[in-house]
Write a structure and sequence with these properties.
- It is a single chain.
- The chain has 338 residues and is mainly α.
- The protein contains 9 helices and 2 strands, in the order αβααααβαααα.
- Strands 1-2 form a two-stranded antiparallel ribbon.
- Helix 7 runs antiparallel to helix 8.
- The longest helix is centred in the N-terminal third of the chain and has 30 residues.
- It is flat.
- The termini are far apart.
Length: 338
């Protein structure tokens, strides 16, 4: 399996969570097509107006303007034929607008997804699928590319940070040292290459975001572009068509890191109010208390914007409610101290 078929196998494999479903959006071409359709419709409308003016001066066709049945049933009604052509062109135009709006709304691919795809295409031991036609540079630059990955670009700031940092930390801090010590037993059987016998060369590739496919450093005698090197699994294949896109790749699924982000977000939402009440209970000076209320309110609003995808009005409402709770606590405890 080579070329487009091999790349399609990578893109369509369920284990990659759609991270490599990256395509050109051709926005400028689509916009040019819309401009042409717009011009065609304008010209057709001008032609219809001229024909309608001529028909209005003809006694046999003057009723075209007030009787649709006469217009549509006339054997030589050029005006009606033009209207049918305009109707088809309008349908094509509106469909093109809808498609353009849908395509331009696709989020840009994650940088690490695109980096990994570029390296995968180039490396002989991985994709070895660099195209040689007019589309040879289609993935060279991120401009104009869109991803079909579910939920692309919709995570909150903290989740995006965790998806960038945790896979790297876990891989290089835990998996990589264990793999060097224990070898192939660390990597699950289902994640080993089941394709053709390995080639002698080594290769590399990284993806640190969301699912984050990471390199596994196994050999140190070969270095490609200053990246860690990889080695094929020595397991042979019983069926050459059973292409395994996970060869030389560790897969870290999004769901694990989303779960961690959810837990951390829940902890933050519960600890900030508790911390505010504890600090306020130890402070007696009213000026200092008001300063603490302002500080915790600001911290709460910032955390709210980082760990949630709430709208601005929802952030305002939650922050106001939190501030109100603190004010009530300060007022009640101040009366007790008197």
């Amino acid at each position: 399996m080579e070329g487009y078929s091999k790349l399609a196998s990578l893109m369509g494999d369920a284990r990659t969570d759609g991270h490599f479903l990256i395509f050109q959006k051709f926005e400028s071409i689509s916009a040019q097509n819309l401009l042409y359709l717009q011009a065609e419709i304008t010209n057709l409308k001008e032609s219809i107006d001229k024909i309608a003016q001529i028909d209005s001066e003809n006694p046999e066709r003057k009723d075209f303007a007030v009787d649709w049945e006469t217009l549509s049933s006339s054997a030589d009604s050029v005006q009606y034929e033009k209207w049918l052509e305009l109707r088809r062109k309008l349908k094509e135009y509106y469909k093109a607008i809808a498609h353009h709006r849908m395509i331009t709304g696709l989020p840009a691919p994650r940088k690490h997804d695109l980096d990994f795809l570029q390296k995968w295409l180039e490396r002989p031991s991985l994709g070895n699928s660099a195209f040689i036609g007019a589309d040879s540079d289609v993935y060279d630059k991120p401009a104009g590319l869109g991803t079909l990955a579910a939920g692309g670009g919709q995570d909150d700031a903290m989740t995006r940070l965790l998806l960038n940092v945790l896979p790297n930390f876990y891989h290089w801090g835990v998996v990589h040292p264990l793999h060097r010590i224990c070898g192939k037993w660390i990597k699950p059987e289902s994640h080993r290459k089941r394709g053709p016998s390995p080639q002698p060369e080594s290769t590399s590739g990284t993806e640190e975001n969301r699912k984050s496919c990471q390199d596994v450093s196994i050999t140190s005698n070969i270095s490609l572009n200053n990246s860690p090197t990889l080695r094929h699994s020595t397991e042979s294949a019983s069926d050459e068509s059973s292409f395994d896109v996970e060869a030389n790749i560790f897969l870290y699924r999004d769901t694990h890191f989303h779960r961690i982000a959810t837990i951390l977000g829940t902890l933050v939402s519960s600890l900030i109010p508790i911390a505010a009440i504890i600090v306020l209970s130890f402070v007696r000076d009213m000026t200092a208390r008001l300063g603490i209320v302002c500080a915790f309110t600001a911290i709460f609003s910032v955390c709210l914007s980082l760990v949630t995808e709430a709208r601005r009005v929802e952030n305002f409402a939650a922050t106001a409610a939190f501030a109100s709770v603190q004010v009530v606590f300060v007022g009640s405890t101040n009366m007790m101290m008197r």
